[in-house]
Amino acid sequence: MLKKIINSFKMAVGTMHGNLFHTLLSILGMIIGVAALVSILSLIDGMEQYAKDQISQTTSLKSIVISPRNTKTVNGISVKKDSFVYMTYPKFVALRNAVTKPAQAYLISTQSAEVGAANQKIVSMVYGCSEKIKPSISVQEGRVFSVEDFEDNSDSAVINMAFAKAAKEKQNWLNEKLRIHQREVNVIGIIDDKSDRPEVYLPLTAFRDEELKAYPPSVAFDVENIEDVAFVKETIRGWMKREYPNNLDDMELMTHEFRLEQATRGFMLFRVIMGLIVGISVIVGGIGVMNVMLISVTQRTTEIGVRKALGANRRDIVLQFLAEAMSISTLGSVCGLILGILGTMAIIPIVKAITKVPFQASYTWNTIGVVAVLAILVGVVFGTYPAMRASKLDPVEAIRRE
Asked: Residues 21, 229: contact at Cβ < 8 Å?
């Protein structure tokens, strides 16, 4: 059987070589359709890669966030929950200790307030936090929080450079008293966090339960190795199920991978829709292949009759014409692939010049696979009818037609 298949393809190649110009004209639609499909897929793959690079640059994929859910949706309306659980400092410490992979943990509650400082009031962001204030800070003066500062009724505070610059005619802030919501705290350090808005940091334990309920804290883990993100996420999920078995809806656990997933789904939808639209051109090319094969059957009636008279059965004739159809569609697909790649290489500089975006087409094995499958499908689908028609010819009638 394998030998017959090989011989059928050899005959098909010989027939194509003998009618090369005719063959090229017949598969012109196939070439254009595959070229358009390859161009679209490679451009979409390039757009997807560019989008993923932008997301990776603007968002840490190694970050895991636990956000509070103090609202619920009723009849399409968001309302505050009467009661809910939130992360406290002792619970945060327990969670941090439960994570065995290398990771930095941050706990933060956010609100705004008028802060009394140096005989004036400065509108500022006020954060309740853990020992680690935030990533990428540098201590300019004094110190940041230590474990001792998280005892109840701590009066320690850390300010950023923007807060220090917001107060007029004030140079030395260390040990300065600040007044925040009838609370007096003492500045122990100044940090530079590259923020341009005034910020004050307090130990989370300095806030009363009423304040934490009004401004529930969030937790963030910055995992050292990206391959550990999934494991750490599952560790956190397991800890939450043990600690809050009946209140899991009060907290949302997420990573920024969902943004990549959303982008991937969006581009997949775009890829499928555009592929179906451009695929119409491929179908038109396939119809051209079938038309050529039907003409070939008519022109080669005597050849078919002679072969059947010499002992070829219907299967042999079907194999011969299917092999020829697949060879023609493969040639069209390969030519279309080359034309599509050359076309995108010519288009990309124009796109970059117009949009000023460092965008490149991406040629993936998926695209090559699509072209290969198309070559086989078009050959089989549009070559079957001509092959079956050829196989049904009566040898005596086929020879007599000449």
From this structure: no
Measured on CA atoms in the order 81, 151, 65, 133, is the torsion positive or negative? positive
Q: What angle do CA 226, 230, 236 make, to 5 degrees?
A: 115
| Structure letter (DSSP) for residue 188 | E
pLDDT tens-digit series, residues 8-21: 455 555 555 556 66
What is the C-alpha to C-alpha distance for residues 239 and 252, in angstroms, rounded to an integer?
Answer: 13
H or E segment to which residue 111 belongs? strand 103-117
CA neighbor of 154 nearest in space, from 180, 115, 192:
180
- What number of other Cβ atoms are within 10 A of residue 286's Cβ? 24
What are the residue boundaries of the structural domains of the chain, listed by start? 2-56+260-401, 63-255
- Cα 134 to Cα 158: distance, rounded to the nearest angstrom: 12
Average pLDDT across each block of 10 residues of the chain; the chain has 402 residues. List them in order: 52 56 68 81 78 62 83 77 86 91 90 84 90 86 88 82 79 85 88 88 88 89 83 90 87 76 75 76 73 65 62 68 73 81 84 76 77 73 66 56 50
Joined tokens for residue 118: 């140096």
| pLDDT score, position 1 | 53
Q: Residue 273: what pLDDT?
A: 80
Phi, psi for 26 (deg, rounded to 5): -70, -25
Contacts 24+ apart (CB under 8 A), 270-277: 270/44, 271/40, 271/41, 271/44, 274/40, 274/44, 275/37, 275/40, 275/41, 275/370
User: Residue 321: in which H helix or E strand, if any?
Assistant: helix 314-355
Contacts of 196 (CB under 8 A, 6+ apart): 162
Choose among 197, 179, 199: nearest CA to 189: 199
Whole-number Å distance between alpha carbons of 89 and 149: 12
83 phi and psi angles, rounded to 5 deg = -145, 145
Question: Is the alpha carbon torsion for 309, 310, 311, 314 positive or negative?
Answer: negative
Task: Report how far apart, in Å, the C-alpha atoms of 234 and of each of 231, 254, 260 are.
Answer: 5, 11, 19
Query: Which segments within 270-384 are labelled E, that is strand?
Result: none
